[in-house]
TrEMBL record:
It comes from Sakesphorus luctuosus. It is a multi-pass membrane protein. It holds the Pfam family Aa_trans. Residues 67-90 are annotated as: Disordered. Residues 109-505 form the Amino acid transporter transmembrane domain. This is Vesicular inhibitory amino acid transporter. Antiporter that exchanges vesicular protons for cytosolic 4-aminobutanoate or to a lesser extend glycine, thus allowing their secretion from nerve terminals. The transport is equally dependent on the chemical and electrical components of the proton gradient. May also transport beta-alanine. Acidification of GABAergic synaptic vesicles is a prerequisite for 4-aminobutanoate uptake. The keyword Coiled coil does not apply.
Amino acid sequence: MATLLRSKLSNVATSVSHKSQAKMSGMFARMGFQAATDEEAVGFAHCDDLDMEHRQGLQMDILKSEGGEEGAETPLEGDIHYQRDGTGPLPPSASKEACSELSGQGKPKITAWEAGWNVTNAIQGMFVLGLPYAILHGGYLGLFLIIFAAVVCCYTGKILIACLYEENEDGEIVRVRDSYVDIANACCAPRFPTLGGRIVNVAQIIELVMTCILYVVVSGNLMYNSFPNLPVSQKSWSIIATAVLLPCAFLKNLKAVSKFSLLCTLAHFVINILVIAYCLSRARDWAWDKVKFYIDVKKFPISIGIIVFSYTSQIFLPSLEGNMQNPKEFHCMMNWTHIAACILKGLFALVAYLTWADETKEVITDNLPSTIRAVVNIFLVAKALLSYPLPFFAAVEVLERSLFQDGNRAFFPNCYGGDGRLKSWGLTLRCALVVFTLLMAIYVPHFALLMGLTGSLTGAGLCFLLPSLFHLKLLWRKLLWHHVFFDVAIFVIGGICSISGFIHSLEGLIEAFRTNAED
């Protein structure tokens, strides 16, 4: 009896500890210190998910202790779910509705403006620096795609949230799902109840890891072009950047780095303003005749991926909407954030391309005069290095949860010891992931190609294909004809763009990989 009591008290104490940590992370997120880029927004959503999990874990431990006194039955092995720290199976007797209600009590909420700040940071990250390069190969059609992608991503974000709700027996619309994974699993049930979630997790991991690679690539590229006279190659700069990033493998939480995210975001907005100001100072020399209606058939599909990747935010929208004080304001928030993003991205891409025309480079700051290029690029490198831990940590969390901490369904032994410390081989795997991002950055040091590939593969899938497919699958009986038409059109157009962009980006990467291997 004493042993059982100590075990229960230990579970409750552990849950309370994680709960307090999640609250701190959530507090930083609401203040704007998180979600500075697309990946940082994923980090914000992930912290909210952990907050919800730990609240449920705490209450379920209490329910378990109460149920034990009444002689509750032991849960079946297949029904056991584990907390994030791997301690304590949760009883299936407590209903999901009760857990959701209990987890929502006292949970801090954010306003529509705070939610809009997070969405804005997600779709206005440093990857907008590649948009002028998209205009180079797409002309006016590239500008049209910037507007089109904003409209589609805004719409798919709304229908994705609609998939979280269903009508109950009383005719009331209630929230029955909590995340993108829940929606995917619901679409694949009952035959394959976990297949959809695994697909979404794989897509999320690919996008997060590719984002880490992009940060290493852009760091090496910016430093090499800032100091071309130094006897240091771009690959060497990438190695130096990775050496600085290696301590990310030891991260236990994001509190150590999330406080810098606001400063990074503000610095990035200042850099965008500086670039636009410089372009406006050369307005007399703008090459309007260079903006054409024709497209580069071979490279334009890559531009599609670049544009789509700059708008990715769907993966964290369910968590964000669930934390809003008034979820009814979500649609309005999505409208003004995407309108603002569309205007700012379009103006930035256009004026930058008009300034440098055919000389526009993959990262637009490389076109700046050497007198100010070094200063601007150093700020961007600092932002990239400080942003890297967030997608890296989110990718590690997803990998550990799905491969090492998924109870009896885990593929490998738990990478955490009984005291909650990371095992040595688990730390080795984290270091290997950092090294993998370096190797990819060395062998394929092409920012636009990697960004286009990621946008075409996971960006189009998470933003275009899956939301429209899930909307049709879950709510097709209640949809009006024009909603069905929009969903089918988005799925078809998104699929064509995704396949085309993926093929051309992959061809470019293979060619670049062969060239580097020969060198």
